[in-house]
Amino acid sequence: MLRSRFAPILGSIVAGAVVLGATLARADAPFREALSEAEARTAPASRYANLTNAETLALLQARRIPFEAAVPPLPGVRMPIRLTGPLRGVWIHSALPPERRAGSMFEILDGRLALVLDEFAEILAAHDVVELVHFTMYRPPTENPRDPGAPQVRHPGGLAIDFGAVKFADGEWLSVGVHWMAHIGARTCGVQARRLDHRKGREIRSIACEAAARRLFHYTLTPHYDGPHADHLHLEIRPGTTTFLVR
Question: Is the CB of residue 96 less than 8 Å from the CB of residue 10?
Fold first, then answer.
């Protein structure tokens, strides 16, 4: 039932939601946190985003993260992989049926994002989450890149995940689109954050804000950001930036 509910959403995400580049440029200054280069380097998001391929592979293996190389390799993704098992007890996969996931491009991510998700899974597990359903990690660019072989950012680089729902150990599901009531322009985290009426929405926000406090992602975009993000959390790491944004 959950899968059938998410299937049309996945299609709409892929078809029309790639507006991040333009909308990030319009983000209001109060929501941004610009760190010094020295401080940014210590944040997990920056440490992982700026790893070399060799360093990424070494960490994936050292942590025994279950993965396999994506075949064939994808232009724009520096180290394309697929997760082949849970991270800290949490399965992370798309909304596609199990039999379609193995060959789907939407299960591909860069190894650097996998390292971040491994830490994110620690937060999820602390909330008794056993499964995270995303709408996409990698997806092809909507426009032809100037250099198709060059590393890309956001989803075309496999460096972002659109978090749609989570399942808890007791079988309960929480869905961003259903349980997070959007108020465009409202703060998500901090003392001035808008309170969400639904208990389930508050738990999803707690997960997002705990990740933001640990600086696991450079960009966290929620339903409070704009219409295209009404049903998911966009979580992204980006090489070379010292800016963090939670909307």
Answer: yes
pLDDT, tens digit, 9 for 90 and up, residues 106-153: 999 999 999 999 999 999 999 999 999 999 999 988 777 777 778 899
As for how many domains the chain has, the answer is 1
Q: Which domain holds residue 130?
A: 2-241
Q: For 151, phi and psi rounded to 5 degrees?
A: -60, 135
Residue 246 belongs to a domain: no
pLDDT in tens, 15-34: 444 444 444 445 445 567 77
pTM of structure: 0.84
Phi, psi angles (nearest 5°) of residue 228:
-60, -15
The SS3 assignment for 244 reads: strand
- State the burial class of residue 38 (Cβ atoms within 10 Å of its Cβ: 0-12, 13-18, 19+): exposed
The residues, any chain, with a CB within 8 Å of residue 235's CB and separated by 6 or more, are 120, 160, 161, 162, 163, 211, 216, 217, 219, 220
pLDDT value at residue 41: 84
Of 219, 133, 39, nearest to 208 by C-alpha is 219
Q: What sign does the CA torsion over 53, 61, 140, 227 have?
A: negative
Give the integer Cα–Cα distance in Å for 128 and 167.
9
In DSSP notation, 163-185 reads EEEEEETTS-EEEHHHH----TT
Residue 72: cis peptide before it, omega within 30 degrees of 0: yes
CA 189 to CA 51: how far, in whole Å? 28
Handedness of CA 83, 87, 89, 91 (dihedral sign): negative
Within a domain: residue 247? no
Could you tell me if residue 70 is inside a domain?
yes
